[in-house]
Records
---
Amino acid sequence: MQADRPFQVGFVHRLRFTRDAFHPENPAFAEAFEEPQTDDRTTRRRAIIFIDDGVAKATPKLGDRIAEYLAGKARRGVNVPEIRAIETVHGGERAKNSTEVVDQVLSATDRFGIDRKSFVVAIGGGAVLDAVGLAAATAHRGVRLVRLPTTTLAQDDAGMAVKNGINRFGKKNYLGTFSVPWAVVCDELFLTTLTDRAFHCGFSEAVKIACLKDPALLTQIERDAAAIRARDLAKAMPIIRRCAELHALHITDGGDPFELAEARPLDFGHWAAHKIESMTNYAVPHGEAVAIGIALDCQYAALAGLLPQADATRITAALTALGLPTSHESLDRVDELERGIEEFREHLGGRLNITMLTGIGQGVEVHSMDHALIARAAEALRSRRATTMRP
Ligand SMILES: NC(=O)c1ccc[n+]([C@@H]2O[C@H](COP(=O)([O-])OP(=O)(O)OC[C@H]3O[C@@H](n4cnc5c(N)ncnc54)[C@H](O)[C@@H]3O)[C@@H](O)[C@H]2O)c1
Ligand SMILES: [Zn+2]
């Protein structure tokens, strides 16, 4: 027999933004466990919860608060799962640099009888969401994952993703899967305990997506940059929410949620970013590496005659105004940095596709990059380092 039968699978991307998610009157977190009418409602579901140790440290008694919240909802007849365990996991890139967190979560799914209709809840930054997500996606070939992103970057980008991953062989996200989370609940209160550096990190992804898809958003970011840098949530949250919405829409309406096509436009600035992260042994966090990667690709595009220099300067200035770096000493090692291009191609498969800007809101795919121009772009950023370095 020979048969080619196309088929489709229906998913829902469930996203809530809220404030104080564990307040007894707040419905958002309980709603994250809602199930389709067709599911059996007679068995109470189970849940195990993993909290980023940075979050646990910054928010004492968080586990108790979550337990009280869910117990209160259950008493009022809301269909929420029974918590079997609340554990902390290593936060930051450490969560992705070994299999320790993945193993911890897998072992808990086994010990606490987490079946495919039970829930794994991940509370943390993008790194914890990625590592816990990989375990949740592989236990029993996939159990339900509820994400509570706790950094700006996780709330405006990573938390929306339909993928997960950890680092292997010195390469970012080498080991991972595509997997749609059951629900994503973003509580802005988490953002109040971030360091300034971690708070600023999420806005490189906002500049990225504004440059690609929403020129008005870039203007808004420029206008409010000083307030965002000073952590004014009234100005920062609308940008985080819009950025999250654009990332979610790209997944649901962009036509390629599992990246089967060649191009991956949301990875603008990321070929260099991922390489800078691994070159520095992750001392440069993802958000900062993305800022440097965007600045580099904008300067490259300007030198290549693709992008007006004024636009490149404008974007770089926006990143600086947000408190983000646009240069780094790893730019001195251009040959090593350039290996990131081939690693990027290899990760995506097929021919090289790198998104460059031709204007604000306009991208183009290029299939090769010129060594001499990369070196000149890096040199231009390095010569500005003195003035653009983080204060
Ligand atoms: N899956 C995806 O599509 C996707 C998309 C973008 C980024 N990412 C990944 O996300 C990671 C970066 O995530 P990130 O920027 O959120 O940083 P992070 O997860 O590395 O967290 C940074 C630090 O902040 C701490 N922290 C987290 N929340 C906190 C809070 N509320 N209060 C105090 N401390 C807190 C963490 O413990 C950690 O030390 C990278 O590994 C990147 O590759 C994944
Ligand atoms: Zn990114």
---
Amino acid sequence: MIDAKTAEYRERYRRELIPEGYSGRLHFTLILGFVAAVLVIGVVRLEAIQPLEWLAVPLTFLYANLAEYLGHRFVMHRRRPGLGMIYERHTLQHHRFFTHRAMQFDSSDDFRAVLFPPMLMVFFATAFALPAGLVLTWLFSANVAWLFVMTAIGYYGSYEILHFAYHQDEDSWIMRLPGVERMRQLHLSHHDPSIMQTGNFNITWPICDVLFGTRVASVPDDVP
Ligand SMILES: [Zn+2]
Ligand SMILES: [Zn+2]
């Protein structure tokens, strides 16, 4: 049962922050479409990959896991100069909209409280992926650059899909996919206000949480 304070915040969020005509389904489709388009372009551009070039995939995966962890722990949960908007959108909005006692969306309009703004994808692509891709092409090869970009964008896609899944209804079929329920438990604990600043910063695979000793496996006792 959703408590009065969260219900009141949700109403305020919907009134003040969800623009007229917003479509949660379109928002999610745009993100998936962008990820799929980059993956398809990458597949077309890859050519005669050498065995060592494949190393770019696991290394980028681990790098993305670290970036997810550090970004969530030190930017999304701490106000940083110039990055206050990210802190606001995550700690002050996402964590108030969803608590461990109220994890589910009420309607597709609420997707806005989970998904990254589409403009941020354009920003990530031009500010990070493009320069990193150019440097990797120069240092190694175009294949390494494309494998980096594809793994990074694939990781971002998995972040959005998993985070979206965790805020679905508990009876949703998504929860029955292998591993999703266990990872959701970790994110559920992270939504407990007493834990959100200290544990479960990986939204996807809890590799860095284990490495840095911030994994909280127990579920809060007051989950309805
Ligand atoms: Zn969440
Ligand atoms: Zn958080």
